[in-house]
Amino acid sequence: MLTLRQIEVIRAITIAGTVKGAAELLGVSAPGISRLMKHTEGQLGMRLFSRMHGHFTPTDEARTIFDQINSVYDRVEKLQMSIDAMKRGASTVFALASVPSLASHVVPSAIRRLQTEYPDMRMAIDILKIEEAVDYLLLQRGEVVAMSYKIDHPGLMSHPLAPGRLVAVVPAEHPLAARPEVTLAELAAERLIGIEPRDPYGKIIADPFHEADLPYRLAIVARFSHTVLTLVGQGLGVAVIDEFSVQGALPRGVAVRPIAEPTSFRTYAVVNADRPRSNHADAFIAALRAVMRARVP
Q: Cα separation of 292 and 109, whole Å?
C-alpha cells in the first residue's frame, strides 16, 4: 500500500518533471526523492517514470493512477485545511457566559487574548446572574461561565481563577473620596446602594458587614453592578463592590477607594462536569487567569 508520502512524491515528480523540481516543490533534498521513488517502483513492481536527459515522463501505468493520486491528495489537502480552520477557531462557535461583575472588563480582556490564538474564532457571549448559570451549563447552551461565586452542584465543576477584594465606590465629591482608604463602619453610616443580600453576589458584598457586626441596610437595591456604579456617580449614595467591576472605564463622578478591613472572595470558571471541554474553553480559562492575576497582587 502506498503511503501518503509516496503519493506526494509521485505527484510532485509528475508536476515538476524532474527530481530536482520535485524536491524544491516539497522542500526536501533531491537524493531523498530519488531513493523514495526507486523504493516505490520496487514495491509496486513497475516503472512509473521514463528518465530521459534528467526529465521524468510518466509511463502509461503512472498516467492511469495519477488521477486517483490527485483525488487522494486533494482529500488530504481538504483535511489539512479543516484542521487549520479548527486551529484558528473558524469551524465552531464557542459559547460562553459571565456574571455582570466580570463581564465589564475581565471577560473582554480575556477574549482579546484568546483571539490572538484563535483569530477566526466565532463566539456567542451571554451575561447571566449567578443563579442562571446552572441551567445554562446543564442544558449545554454554552461551555464556560465566569463566576464570582462557587456553585455546589454535582453536575458542575468549578475551576478557581483568582482571588479578589472588595472596594468602596463613592461620589467623587463625597468627603470619603478624599480619604486614602475607608472603613466598613464609615460606609455603613452612609446611604448604601447595592445588590439584594439574598442574591449570591449580594451576599459576597454584605458578608464583611455582618462579620464586623455592622448594619447593612440598602437605601437603593439594584440588580447589576453597573447600575450600582451609575447610581453612585449620580450622588445617590455609596456602595461596596468587587474590584473587577471597577476595572476599565467608570461612570463619571465615581471614586474608588480601598477598604481598610481585609475583604476577599474567589472567582471561578464553571463548566459542565459531564461534558469534555474544548480547546477553546481551556484557552479561555487560561486567559481569564492571566488577566485577573496580572491585576491582583
A: 9
What's 259's DSSP letter?
Answer: B
**What percent of the chain is helix, strand and coil (3-state, nearest 5)?**
45, 25, 30
Residue 72 has pLDDT above 70, yes or no: no
C-alpha 230: how far from chain center: 29
DSSP 141: S
Rounded (5°) CA angle 40-26-86 = 105
Query: In the block, which residue shows the cell 453536575?
Result: 155
CA-closest candidate to residue 270, choices 69, 79, 128, 171: 128
pTM above 0.90, yes or no: no
The cell numbers describing 191, all together, are 446611604
CA dihedral 268, 271, 277, 278 (to 10 degrees): -70
Q: CB of 256 within 8 A of CB of 168?
A: yes
- Here the cell at position 50 is 521514463
Per-residue pLDDT reduced to its tens digit, 100-123: 889 888 999 999 998 888 888 888
Distance CA 169, CA 151 (A): 27
Amino acid at 232: V
Report the range of poorest mean pLDDT among 65-74, 177-186, 238-247. 65-74
CB 270: neighbour CB atoms within 10 A?
24
